[in-house]
Amino acid sequence: MAFVRVDNRLVHGQIIETWLPFTHARMIVVVNDELAADHLRQEIMSLAIPAGVEIVFLAVADLAAYFSRTPLDISDALILFSNCRDAQAAYEQGFDYLSLNLGNLHYAPGKRQVCPHVALSKEDESCLDFLRDRGVRLDYRCLPGDPAQLRTA
Predict the structure, then answer these.
(1) 132 CA to centre of own chain
(2) Is the Cβ–Cβ distance between 2 and 72 less than 8 Å?
(3) What whole-number distance in Å separates Cα of residue 12 and Cα of residue 5?
(4) Is the domain covering 3-151 a CATH 3.40.35.10 domain?
(5) Based on the number of CB atoms within 10 Å of its own CB, is 103 exposed (0-12), middle (13-18) or buried (19 or more)?
(6) Domain extent listing, the chain
(7) pLDDT tens digits, 41-60
(8) Please, which residues bridge with residue 31 across strands?
(9) For residue 151, which phi and psi values (nearest 5 degrees)?
(10) What's the whole-number mean pLDDT along residues 135-140?
């Protein structure tokens, strides 16, 4: 099973330096409608990717179909969403996953800080309730070495 993470920063140093080695991923799949259509930003993000790691940019609606036709084992992938809404939409469209890592969601007015690196809006909480109700394990962890803060209720 792929490692699935919500991090509003998407590809950044923490992903490259800590999560790639932790997950042993050979592919990063960035799932974001806006970025899927922005080839310049894709090229800029791709500059940070180490040799031997593939990066793919997909619209949310394309994620499930992509893994049905790619020869790469899904367990070799690190899936990145920028927000909870996209993680829920992908699940609803057939991309099934058992665990969701909430790595970074910045604070903004109207959001509730639930741990040092995650602030949730009412919409975020609704999306996470949807996933939790379907058995998805929520893992609130910024770095792999942080203690897992698992939430199932």
Answers:
(1) 16
(2) no
(3) 13
(4) yes
(5) buried
(6) 3-151
(7) 999 999 999 999 999 999 99
(8) 58, 81
(9) -130, 120
(10) 93
